[in-house]
Amino acid sequence: MTTGTTDPFAYHAPTTVREASQALSRYRGDAKLLAGGHSLIPMMKLRIASPQAIVDLRNVEGLRGITENDDGSITIGAMTTYYELITSDVINSKACAIAEAASEVADTQVRNWGTIGGSLAHADPAGDLPAVAVALGMEINSASARSSRSIASDRFFRGYLETALRPNEVLTGVTVPAQDEGSGCAYVKLANKASHYAIVGVAASVTVDGGGVCTAARIGITGAGPHAVRSRRAERILVGKELTENVIDRAAQRGGAELAGMFNDDVHASAEYREAMTQVYTARAVTRAAACAMG
Amino acid sequence: MTTDTLIGQEVTRVEDQALITGRGQYVDDLRLPGLLHLALVRSPYGHAKINRIDVSAAANAPGVVSVFTGADLAEQLGSLPAGWVLIPEQTGGEPMATPDHPPLAIEKVRYVGDAVAAVVASSPAAASDAVALVDVDYEPLPAVTDAEQATMEGAPEIHEGVANNKSFDWTVAAGDYDAAAAEADVVVKERIVNQRLIPNPMEPRGIMADYNAGTEQLTIWTSTQIPHLVRLLFALVTGHPEHKVRVIAPDVGGGFGCKLYLYAEEVIVGIIAKQLEKPVKWIESRTENYVATTHGRDHIADAEICGTSDGIVTGLKVHVYANLGGYLSTFAPAIPTILFGLMLGGCYKFENLSCTVAGVFTNTTPVDAYRGAGRPEATYVVERMMERYAHEIGRDVIGVRRRNFIRPFRRGHDMPIGVTYDSGNYQGALGAALDMFDYQAFRQEQRDARREGKLLGVGFSTYIEICGMAPSAVAGALGAGAGLWESSTVRVHPTGTVTVFTGTSPHGQGHETTLAQITSSRLGIPMENVEVVHGDTERHQFGTGTFGSRSLAVGGEALMMSLDKVIEKAKEIAAHEMGVDAKQVVFENGTFYVEDIQEREIPWGDVALGAYWAKNLPDGLEPGLEAVSFFDPQNFTWPFGTHIAVVEIDEMTGETSLVRYVAIDDVGNVINPMIVDGMVHGGIAQGAGQALQEAAVYSDDGQLLTGSMMDYAVPTAEDMPSFETGRTVTPTIVNSLGAKGAGETGTIAASPAIVNAAVDALKHLGVTHLNMPLSAEKMWRTIQDAKEARRARRSAAARRGN
Questions:
Q1: Are B131 and A267 an interchain contact pair (Cβ–Cβ within 8 Å)?
Q2: Lowest CB count within 10 Å: A93, B311, B400, B473, which one?
Q3: Does the domain formed by A66-176 have CATH 3.30.465.10?
Q4: A155 to chain B nearest CA, in Å?
Q5: Residues B491 and B446 in one domain
Q6: What's residue A2's pLDDT?
Q7: Domain shared by B287 and B300, yes or no
């Protein structure tokens, strides 16, 4: 029975992304980046993870903060905490689903330490932020010692705790594209009573024109399957129609259709229940996003 | 602050300043020079044979001092005791099976978490690293985790020679249930599962031991509710003389019953410290706590209630499979029997009762007391079946209860089962609760809500409980292995300040405040002049500890007795000083005086000083001012009350929330209402936790699937509404304080009230029972199934119509 220690590991606290990436290269995939530490450290204490080295990002310049760009997009540094997201005016006015999701994460202590970059890079299948990243069409910005790139959020989550990041890449932040006039977004979840992770979490973003017709929709789902997914089949039903209760219900019935056969099944919820709840919560997320869009 | 007015006052807890500013001293805070650290190798299997243990790699690991297996220490460790052996008169003449419980398993492991070896090292990290290096060759055996299945033909044998894995079949009865059922208009049956819970005290267990080879004194610091019983049982198990063992319970961060036993680790750490002649410490991790500290509940009850079609209940019959886990924990046999069966009469008049309980070994963590301990399980059966019966006959749950209530009584009421309730007014508590809760308005709200697709339900629990453990002769006659009285010492110092020593052992209940309030009020001295000492076998000669809502009802009365003795002696001294007869002396507000002679008045402090100065004492009176008392109550106490819960169910998802909670408790007289409110609040939260979200779940092969706080849903403030609490006061006649005990009311009352509310919310769909916890998925499925059944009924009816 283990009691909270682990094998010795090296500790690095670089000051640049380049050095951080070099450290990752040096340990050939057996180093872990430390952001808020609220997933990594418990995993190490339980010996689920025992990396050779920890590369602490706390001293790396420029990884923290929320910036509104001239084109209306928002850049969020990877080390920005949930608390900073929840209390940001920019986030609350332009991309409120991020704040809604962040405020649903765990408890106050975790929200004070946990970061958006950590959440996305860790890619917990039941994490809250991945669903929002998908629904808002975020670009995930990453860098290695030699290059940097952006990865579309709907191609970022690849599997259970698995992302499109390469072993030597550091997630540096995200860019939330400018939301069109008439847009609204929302995040709702059915929380696991113990961990407060999502049994099912759904984020939706919709744009509605002056005539009340939906011109764009994106739906991100977390908790239900091995990783966060985009529910294009539900989106397609919404686009081009007025968002009536009937239309939303029809779309919701396709919510999570992409996960058919892949719904998680565990002591907390059966696959059947997760599937049904994905539909219910898709309807709720779209309804709220639409209300916000037509605000 | 002085005088009588402190009784019944919301005095701020004197404990809190230290505890909330980090100045508490828990076992983990204690340090000794040369301290070694112990970690345990625990079984990863539910049931397995130990073929071989190779400790060589661990023994050679950095920092490791020594590694011990069960075989190394078999002699010294002994076998953990069964502290309560049910009497053959109640077990069908068959002696209860009490198989050996070696603190370190030797031949077999019987649950995940069973300890098999101990590693001692220079640091906690070194010890826990080396645990992974102990190579145990296990031969996995078939396991069984469900109590009913464990009794069946072909189930794995967990203890050699224990047939059907049953420790006992216990029986108690009153009247003739079968005859009552045969005559009844209505008989309703239900299988009622009371799921397994994990207590989760904020502080896991921790033990430190230090041995002085010169004096042979062994000191054990342990996070326990029962330091004196730990000392006694440790001496009995290990043979180390009791007078050379000192047990200290420093600050203890909660227990809820799970720190109420002699644990394997207490024996292991103590014996290894003695063996090594070095101080040794073990601190339980939260992960270990989930598997190595006792669990609670885990009953499968088949219940039957019978009565007339117009609402008179005539009998109740219950058969229980009680899961005991892999071994008998210290008090395990008493919980599902004495504390369950004797409660099944509830606060009702019916005279026919039949209760049989099979105590069953399984490959799971041992089960013992958990807040309420047997009484929540009994109340759940009784209150669930009362509403089940009321629904069956189509009558209102309040009316049916009123029809069956025992009438108010102040001086004892004999129950058919053979116990005597002390005092009760069940109508009064129900009435007070209904004064706070507008029932008719709720029913209207419920109908309106249903039209809007919102499911609301109300549930009641008119509970009763057994507290004030316990009259020793009664407990002893039922199998208790220890007296359950309580003791106190009141030591008055020459300056008039007072130290109170109590055998109770608080771990969050606020005894330092409550007992100081009593002392301050009785002696008329400021509370800050009173120190309450507990939790140290060297400072207080003997005590029973804190559990079963006994500390005030039994321990408080022991304090009253010592205070009375001290006051009597002080009066003699004062009378002698004043030159009057002691009978003429009045003691009030800290002053001794004689009526009508105002100038003859002596303050408390002068008498205290006089007692020690001893220059003017009455002839034959010993100097000093100190008294010791033992209080052994003549009966238990029987608190009661009415709790009302309102739940709201999301029809689409099954999510069930507690939206309103009204609690009227009658715990007799109250010393500190704030402390009682706090206990009621915490208790309701725990009862609600069981009703709504907590469950320890095992896989069939004995793995605990809910082995962390990420998987086991301990309730939090955000899951609770703001509780509306109140009290009626029906003092007990069992002690002079009139106090019944308040530590467990909420836990006992809440789960049936909440489940009754959920059933009420779904009644229109044909739902008659729900098993806990009311998880969203379970509720969703129930609603789906009920709607499906309704559709099927309707289409069948339509077909018939054609």
A1: no
A2: A93
A3: yes
A4: 29
A5: no
A6: 43
A7: no
Residues of chain A with CATH 3.30.465.10: 66-176
Instruction: Determine, for residues B285 and A4 on separate chains, whether the beta-carbon distance falls below 8 Å.
Output: yes
Question: Residue A7: its pLDDT value, please?
Answer: 67
Q: How far apart are CA B387 and CA B380, in angstroms?
A: 11
Reported confidence tier of residue B322, pLDDT bands at 50, 70, 90: very high
- B697 and A267 in contact by Cβ < 8 A? yes
Question: What is the mean pLDDT of the segment spanning B292-319?
Answer: 98
Q: Are residues B627 and B640 in the same domain?
A: no
Domain shared by B705 and B584, yes or no: no
Q: Which range marks the domain in which residue B126 is found?
A: 31-141+202-254+259-292
Query: ∠ at Cα B615 (B609, B617), nearest 5°?
Result: 85
Q: Which site among A192, A193, A195, A280 would you substitute to test the B interface, given the most B Cβ atoms closer than 10 Å to its Cβ?
A: A193
Do residue B575 and residue B687 come from a single domain?
no
- Is 2.40.128.30 the CATH classification of the domain at A183-294? no
User: How many distinct structural domains can be found in chain B?
Assistant: 3
My answer on whether B716 and B619 are in the same domain is no
Q: What is the pLDDT of residues A13-62, one digit of tens each?
A: 999 999 999 999 999 889 999 999 999 999 998 888 999 999 999 999 99
- The distance of A60 to chain B (nearest Cα, Å) reads 31
Q: What is the pLDDT of residue A4?
A: 41
Strand, helix or coil for residue B753: helix
B69 DSSP assignment: E
d(CA B643, CA B657): 16
B119 lies in the same domain as B241: yes
How does pLDDT run across B135-173, given as a tens digit for each residue?
Answer: 999 999 999 999 999 999 999 999 999 999 999 999 999
Provide the strand spans (E) within B141-205: 166-174, 186-197
The structure tokens 């057996």 sit at A30
Chain B touched by A48 (CB under 8 Å): no
Say whether residue B697 is in contact with chain A using an 8 A CB cutoff.
Answer: yes
Question: If we measure between CA atoms, which residue out of B397, B445, B468 comes closest to residue B638?
Answer: B468
Q: Enumerate the CATH 3.30.390.50 domain ranges in chain A, comma separated.
A: 183-294
Quote the ipTM score.
Answer: 0.94
Q: Tell which B residues from 97 to 126 touch A, by Cβ distance under 8 Å.
A: 113, 124-125
Q: Are B689 and B200 in contact (CB under 8 A)?
A: no
Taking the CA atoms of residue A36, residue A37, residue A38 and residue A41 in that order, the dihedral angle to the nearest 10 degrees is -170
A192 to chain B, any CB pair closer than 8 A? The answer is yes
Does residue B86 carry a pLDDT above 70?
Answer: yes
Of B347, B368, B350, nearest to B359 (Cα)? B368
Which residue(s) pair with B562 in the sheet? Answer: none
Among chain A residues, CA nearest to B781: A273
- Displacement of CA B305 from its chain's centroid (Å): 27
Q: By percentage, how much of chain B surpasses pLDDT 70?
A: 99
Confidence of residue B1 (pLDDT cuts 50, 70, 90): very low
Is the model's pLDDT at B3 over the cut of 60? no
In this structure, what CATH number is given to the domain that contains residue B694? 3.30.365.10
* Least confident window among A123-132, B226-235, B468-477, B530-539: B468-477
Contact A5 B697 (CB under 8 A): no
Instruction: Indicate which CATH number applies to the domain containing B217.
Output: 3.90.1170.50
A210: nearest Cα among A293, A89, A93: A293
A5 vs B283: CB contact, 8 Å cut-off? no
CA distance B118 to chain A (A): 11
pLDDT band for position B802 (cuts 50, 70, 90)? low
Question: Quick one: closest CA in B to A274, which residue?
Answer: B777
CB atoms within 10 A of CB B595: 8
Contacts of B706 in chain A (CB under 8 A): 194, 267
Tell me the chain B residues in contact with residue A190 when contact means C-beta distances shorter than 8 Å.
Answer: 653, 655, 776
For B:44-103, CB contacts with A below 8 A are none
Q: B712–A4: do the CB atoms touch at under 8 Å?
A: no
Residues B313 and B423 in one domain: yes
Query: To the nearest whole angstrom, how far is the Cα of A61 from the nearest Cα of chain B?
Result: 34
Question: Parallel, antiparallel, or unpaired for β B64-69 and A66-68?
Answer: unpaired
